[in-house]
Specification:
Elements: H1 7-23, H2 26-35, H3 41-49, H4 68-81, H5 87-101, H6 104-116, E1 121-124, E2 140-142, E3 145-154, E4 161-166, E5 170-175, E6 181-186, E7 195-204, E8 206-208, H7 214-250, E9 252-253, E10 256-257, H8 262-291, H9 295-321, H10 332-344, H11 349-364
Parallel strand pairs: 1-4
Antiparallel strand pairs: 2-3, 3-7, 4-5, 5-8, 6-7, 9-10
Helix pairs in contact: 1-4, 4-7, 5-6, 5-7, 7-8, 7-9, 7-10, 8-9, 9-10, 9-11
Length: 365
Amino acid sequence: MNFDFSADQKLLQKTAAAFLKENASFERVRKTMESGEGIDRDLWKKMAEQGWQATAIPEAFGGQGFGYLELVLLAQEIGYTVAPVPFSSSVYLCTEAILLAGSEAQKKKYLPKLASGETIGTFAFAESAGVPRIDKLSATLSGGKLSGTKTPVTDAPNSTLAVVVVKGGSLAIVDLKAGGITCTKVPSMDLTRSQGTLAFQNAPAELLGTEGGAAAIIEKLYDRAAVLMAFEQIGGARRAMEMARDYAKTRYAFGRQIGSFQAIKHKIVDMLVNNEVAVSNCYYAAWALENNQNLPVAAATARVAATDAYEFASKENIQVHGGIGFTWECDAHLLLKRSKLLALALGSAGEWRERLIDRLANNAA
C-alpha cells in the first residue's frame, strides 16, 4: 500500500511553502507578536484568496472540494513557518464541527463564510484550568440563549464565530458579534496566537446537532484535528531540526564547527530519528483520515509521536544554539512556544497516550 502523496499534492505543498516563505517569514511573525493582535490579517486574507480555508469544504457549501490529504500538507507548511493565523481554530475545529454536526441549513449559512475567510471560527470547551469534562460544565443553552464563561479559548479575540460545548452535552453555535458577549484577552506564552475568555450573558445562539450529542461529535472532531495539528507539529519539528543543523555548521568554537562535536551530532540525529517516526505515523494517519479507516488509533498515534518530536526538537534547537538560544533575538523560541501551544491544544500527550492504550485494548478485545 502506498502512503505517499501524489505528484499534484506535492506540487501543492511546494507552492504553499514558497508562498509562506515570502509572506510568513520570521520577521513577519515577529511584527505580529509586537502588534499584540495575535494574527496577521494580511496573511489570512492572502490565504483565503488562494482557497486554503476552503480546502476540505465541499463545493456545495462554497469550498474547494479537495480532501484531507491536501489540507494536511498545508498544515505542515503552516507549522514550518509558525504562521500567525487562526487556521487550526477556524479550519480544523470550528469548520469541522459544523461539517460533523450541522444541519443542511447551518452548513449553507456558516460554511461559505468560513471558506472565504470572512468568518474566523473557534471552538470553546474548557471553563477553567485542567482537563475539560462535559459532565462538569456550567455554561447553558436554553430558549436560544447562551450563558456562561469559557476560558481559555484559542484565537477568541480574533474570532467572529464560536462552537461552544454546553451543560448537558450539547453544542451551540454563536455569532461573537452579537450582543451579550464579552471577550477578554488572556496572557499567552505564544504571542503569535491569541487566547481569550468568552463570557456569555443570554447571548443569542442555536443548537448545533442533536441535543446531548456533543460527546460523540467531540471525539470524532478531536481525532480529525489531532491529525491536522500533528502535521503542523512535524512541520515545526523539521524547521527546528534544520535551524539546529544550519547553526551547527556555521558556529565555530575552539577552532572548529560545533557540528563536528559528538554531543551536538547526537542531538541533531536524535531530532531526526524522532521526526522520522512522527512523519511515518502522520502519513498513515492522513491516509486513515482521508479513507475513514482505523482513524481513532491512527490519530492518537500521530498526535503522541508528533507532540514528542516537536517538543524535543524545539528544546534541543535552543540547546544547540547555546547562550544565544535563550535570547529574544534568536528565533528558536518562536518554535518552542508554538510547540507548547499545539501540545496542549487538544489535550496533553499524556491524555492522548491513555486514549491510544484504551483504543488499542478495545481493538484487541
